[in-house]
Amino acid sequence: MFERDGQALYFGVTPVENIFLTELMPSAKGDFVKVYLAALFHAGQPGEDTNVQELAGELQQTPSQVEAALRYWERRGALSYIAGENPRYRLYSLTQRALTGQDTAPEADEDYIAFSENVYSLFGDERKLRPSEIAAAYEWVVDEGLSQDAVLTLLFHFKETAGAHFSFKKAGETAARMKQDGVLTAQDAESYLGFEDAVRKGAQAVLRRLGKRRLPSDEELALYRKWLREWRFTQEAVLTACRETTAAGDPSFKYLDGILSRLRQDGKPMDERRVERLLSEGDELKDRTERVLNALGSKARPASAMPVVEALCREHPEEVVLIAARECALNGAHTLDLMQKLLDSWKEKGLDSREAVEAHIQKVREQDAFLRRIYEACGADSRPGSADRARLSSWRESGYSDELILEAARQAAGASGRKTAYMAAVLTRWQEAGVRTPEDVSKLAPRGPSVQERPVKQVSAQQYAQRDYREEDLENQLGVNELFRDAPAEGSHT
């Protein structure tokens, strides 16, 4: 007699009971809610016969996902499966079932009923459980694959550690982790939850060590769980590492995570003794870095300079590194890279001890002091360099006394051009004439042509590279000063 306008299919209204919105929907998965609402919609269309496959297509889900959702709502007492030639589902009035005390559908699963009774017994009068909470816990059995005993163990653990009115959502997150870690039985759950209890207590201990009086957040618990399980730190080791957080203005789990990340070593167990040793080594390296930076006069941050100093002290004795730092500072070069170049130059010369380096520096300083006397005597405006040092060493090795070298410098005072070349020619002529002292020079007969106008015989004392003393050669420098000739200004630091 009566029929509905076909347009009502699209422009009508599907009633949803408030009890569904307040009691069932909050604990249900989003896809499950979509299936229930779609079932309500189709149940309101007379004569329609939608099957699981069609419903899955409408909702862009797989048939197995739709069937899982229908089983969920069946356990919640919202509908029931009716077997027959054409299987179908019957939807119930949720309000009527709540008023009459019908918590489950008449055809409810016996396992679910037994599980519900066990959960109610677990809480007794401590907490009045809602059917939605029982159903949510049973999902951990169906969806997560946990045994009923494992779920009951999980609920008991939360009741004992967080109080009877704990969040079932939090417990569900733990159930998901249990599935991921392969914890399915009650025995495994007891061991796993004991670990979780240790995580909670350990994280609280860390917060107290950091000077914070509150409960750990989920993110902090996850970090602490990682430190113990993946990085294999003991609880005592984690607390020992907390002492390094004093450098932070507001110490946090994230800051501590960075410290532990640097300390962990290839998956090896990290106990308190090992962490203490590594921290002590770190303290020693920090102190060593500060000593080097102070000697260098550098304003670099110790944290950024530590890797460089550590590498230098592996290659050179620390006392040699400190000498190099002081030499750099004396020459106005406050950078680690120039200090490293100086150390490399010493290593090339085989200077690998404090005694050898100090003797080398003393020799260079003596040579430079004498070279300055030479420059003054010949009127040259020069600065001691590696080429001049090599030339001076060559003259001395050839038997020229310092007095004779200075006399040659005085005679070169009036010469034009390169005065060192003039001195070399004068010394060569004196050597051929048998001159050994300045007094012997006055006994020589006056020369004819100028020494600069006649060919000069090359002797062994002159067989070296005739380079301008101003030419820089960092790779082959023989002293110290060449490294700093183009050093950065005082305010520039590495």
Polypeptide structure, described:
The chain is mainly alpha-helical and 494 residues long. The protein folds into 5 domains: 8-100, Arc Repressor Mutant, subunit A; 110-184, no CATH class; 194-270; 281-354; 378-442 and 451-484, no CATH class. Helix content is 59%, strand content 2%. The chain is built from 23 helices and 2 strands. It has helices at residues 8-11, 18-24, 30-43, 52-59, 63-75, 94-100, 110-123, 131-142, 148-162, 168-180, 186-209, 218-229, 235-241, 253-263, 272-296, 302-315, 318-330, 336-348, 354-378, 386-397, 402-411, 419-433, 438-442; strands at residues 79-82, 88-91. Strands 1-2 form a two-stranded antiparallel ribbon. Strand 1 and strand 2 (88-91) form a beta hairpin. Helix 17 (318-330) packs across helix 18 (336-348). The longest helix is centred in the middle third of the chain and has 25 residues, at 272-296. The N and C termini lie far apart (94 Å).
Key descriptive features of the protein:
494 residues; mainly alpha; Arc Repressor Mutant, subunit A; two-stranded antiparallel sheet; 2% strand; elongated; disordered C terminus
